[in-house]
Amino acid sequence: MRRIIAVLLENEAGALSRVVGLFAQRNYNIETLTVAPTEDPTLSRLTLTTIGDDRKIEQITKHLNKLIEVIRVVDLTEGEHIERELMLVKVKAVGAQRAEVKRTADIFRAQVVDVTGATYTVQVTGTSGKLDAFVHAIGELSILEVVRSGVSGLSRGEKVVSL
Amino acid sequence: MERLSGGDMLIRALQDEGVDCIFGYPGGAALHIYDAIFRQQRVQHILVRHEQAATHMADGYARATGRPGVALVTSGPGATNAITGLATAFMDSIPMVVISGQVSNALIGTDSFQETDMIGISRPVVKHSFMIKHASEIPEVVKKAFFIATSGRPGPVVIDVPKDTTDPGELFDYSYPETLKMRSYSPATRGHSGQIRKAVDLLLTAKRPVIYAGGGVIQGEASAILTELTRYLGFPITNTLMGLGCYPATDPLFLGMLGMHGTYEANMAMHHSDIILAVGARFDDRVTNDPEKFCPGAKVIHIDVDPASISKIIAAEVPIVGPAQPVLTDMLALLQERIEVAPSLLDREAHGHWLEQIAGWRGQHGLDHGLLKQGSDGVKIRPQAVVQCLYQVTGGEAFVTSDVGQHQMFAAQYYHFDRPRRWINSGGLGTMGFGLPSAMGVKFAYPDAVVACVTGEGSIQMNIQELSTCTQYGLPVKIINLNNQALGMVKQWQDMQYGGRHSSSTYQDSLPDFVRLVESYGHVGIRVTEFSDLEPAMREVFSAKLRDRLVFLDVSVDPDEHVYPMAIKGGSMGDMLLSRTEQS
Chain A closest CA to B182's CA: distance in Å? Predict the structure, then answer.
């Protein structure tokens, strides 16, 4: 099962490498990983998605918690949560394709953020599933380049992950 | 406030941390630190012959005393040579601080001479690591390093120190922090009372209980309370390889070691138990055999300071996160409270039958502790008999370190440890070359103690250069070499699983004359080939006459001996080979 795990950690050199190293060392999978400092510059917030059964996820969260620089670990998928991913796609757009790409982008509430005579660059945000659907709708043949941010997420409601 | 250079601050911080000796080897990037050592008296530096040995000495010191061991190495090869010792300490949760010199900040990342990314290379085998970015951080980093190494589940911590941060020309205000606040690190200090109550409820239902205690009891200074609790309940108890000594081995409730080479009665008791109280043990694969077939009728109560150890291999019915000592103290108090009111809560009758059944198993296939009476000249000496002889001659009072292989298992099986911290071996990583340096570390901690290193001719050659360090510091450790002229455990597996094809496990024509070898270092060597010479020679090794000498006892033992019992691969804990021809 796919899980989204939120990690609050000290914003220090080497902290991220310990998180990534842990996954490699213990044969856990990282599907996506995003990390950036928070409103408190001494803290980084990291969101990662991984796949595993309950037992594996329990081990992953326990081992993450053991890392000295890690302050909080929350499995967002345990409750209601919001996940968002950002994707930039450079698409072939010539002739009839130009209108078709624009239409598809509108359907997905995506924005065209750069234009040339032969290409559109489209920005899509949403769940990973929506991004996959957009790629599928555009068709792999017309896609020139894709970059995705990986998932960011937080809990719905009043629950917060903080110090 | 005092003004000190980075190098002086580092050594001063070690003094303030109460460190009395460090084990190390100098080199370019560490020279400022070495100069700081030279200009003070409180921290003794022990010059080793190889950095791996420095880490094992610090490790042995820590295992014997419970205080963190400290090693100091230079950058590059010094740092990489320390990795095996770090990994050894990490696997066995030993508190240790390794300080590595590093090239100057300006050179980092340029592939400069003797540069290696120590933080990166050590990352998977340390509890934590620090890189000093500025000299002013040194006191706080040292404080944190010792705190992390010794608290919670202990482990090794690396401090990587770029040369420029120890520059004797730059002075800084020095004060050693008295307290420490780390928002991201707060190890459990007590167990959850609700969980302890649940555990007590479950323990009181037990008809066939076993206490399974490991290294965490020793690390957590919980041997006394565990012994009290075990005796109060009258439950049988087994120890892991790392836990030996946490419960008196000569006590009637003690079943011996469990696991791959555990006793028949310990493994059978585990397999047939209904309640297992696991304390500071981690259900290692060398204990459980196939986890799917592990103790089918047992419910597990698991006490461990590290939550990640609980339900990692075997799901715990009642998990208790916390250090063994306070948890067991609370547990015993609660048990006493309950049982005093209603003594019938403990099913003494069922427990009596259970202990009888275990005694039956012991009678059937228990270890034979009378081998010393059975040997004779002209028949090859059995290695087990050598360990029994060592036990007898030292009265069970020695610190015994070991290397890795058959001799290690024989020592674990046949030397009875009645006290914690007396049995010192690399259980998790299985590091050959650990025995001699760790024995030296013990000797530095307790100069008057009897310290024996049980080893083999394979393992001893992995750090034999330390005989020179023993000469320099006058370290009278006693080395008991079970010389079977082969890598015995490898050979045993090849006998059992590879049709006796001894691929790269023998070298009988190229072994040194160990007696002359140790003599060349100024030590005493004694060779034994006949059984009747064994006991007199062992007595000589530990005689008053040789009290201050390193003695190397080289005993020619039966090269065809196997370690039994041995777990049958893929089976349950009850599936064991008991000899070349019998199985359970």
Answer: 9
Is residue B360 within a helix (H) or strand (E), and if so which, with residue range? helix B348-365
Q: What is the mean pLDDT of residues B500-512?
A: 96
The interface predicted TM-score of the complex, written ipTM, equals: 0.92
Burial class (CB in 10 A: 0-12, 13-18, 19+), B400: buried
Instruction: Give percent of chain B above pLDDT 90.
Output: 98
Catalytic positions of B are 51, 113-114, 163, 489
Q: Are residues B431 and B508 in the same domain?
A: yes
Q: Which residues of B touch A10 (CB under 8 A)?
A: 184
Looking at the predicted structure, is the pLDDT value of residue B213 above 90?
Answer: yes
The shortest C-alpha distance from A146 to chain B (Å) reads 31
* Alpha-carbon span A34 to A45, nearest angstrom: 8
Q: Does residue B429 share a domain with residue B351? A: no
Dihedral over Cα of B180, B185, B187, B192: its sign: positive
pLDDT score recorded for residue A163: 84
Closest CA to B99 of B35, B146, B39: B146
B13-32 residues touching A, CB cutoff 8 A: none
pLDDT at B1 over 90: no
Domain contains B579: no
B275 and B422 within one domain? no
User: Domain span at residue B117?
Assistant: 2-174
Burial class (CB in 10 A: 0-12, 13-18, 19+), B175: exposed
Candidates A16, A61, A62, A64, partner chain B, best to mutate (most B CBs within 10 A): A62
Nearest CB among B123, B185, B312 relative to A18 is that of B123
Any B CB within 8 A of A55 CB: yes
Q: Would the pLDDT of B375 be above 90? A: no
Contact (CB<8Å) A10/B128? no
Q: Tell me the average pLDDT of chain B.
A: 97
Interface test with B, best of A11, A68, A163 (most B CBs within 10 A): A68
B102 interfacial to chain A (CB closer than 8 Å):
no
What is the β-pairing status of strands B171-174 and B2-5?
A: antiparallel
* Calpha distance A63→B213 (Å, rounded): 23
Tell me how far apart the alpha carbons of residues A12 and B533 are, in angstroms, rounded to a whole number: 63
Cβ(B234)–Cβ(B204) below 8 Å = no
Residues B289 and B162 in one domain: no
Which residue's entry shows tokens 């080395």? B479
CATH number at residue B140: 3.40.50.970
Q: Tell me, what's the pLDDT at A140?
A: 83
Number of cross-chain residue pairs from A and B with Cβ atoms under 8 Å apart: 36
Structure tokens at B325: 């000592």
Contact residues for B213 (Cβ-Cβ < 8 A; gap 6+): B226, B237, B238, B239, B240, B243, B246, B247, B278, B279, B280, B281
Of A93, A76, A102, A71, the closest CA to residue A141 belongs to A93
Q: In this complex, do B306 and A66 lie within 8 Å of one another by their Cβ atoms?
A: yes
Q: Which of B119, B128, B131 sits opposite A68 (nearest CB)?
A: B128
Is residue B208 in a domain?
yes
Is residue B360 domain-shared with residue B381, that is, in the same domain? no
**DSSP states of B443-485 as a string?**
HHH-TTS-EEEEEETTTGGGSTTHHHHHHHHT---EEEEEE-S
Contacts of A21 in chain B (CB under 8 A): 123-124
Reported confidence tier of residue A141, pLDDT bands at 50, 70, 90:
confident
Q: Which H or E element spans position B527? A: strand B524-528
Domains and CATH numbers, chain A: 2-79 (3.30.70.260), 82-152 (3.30.70.1150)
User: Is B177 in CB contact (< 8 Å) with chain A?
Assistant: no
Q: Are B376 and B524 members of one domain?
A: yes
Indicate the pTM of the whole model: 0.96
Q: Do B184 and A25 touch (CB under 8 A)?
A: no
| In a shared domain, residues B359 and B217 | yes
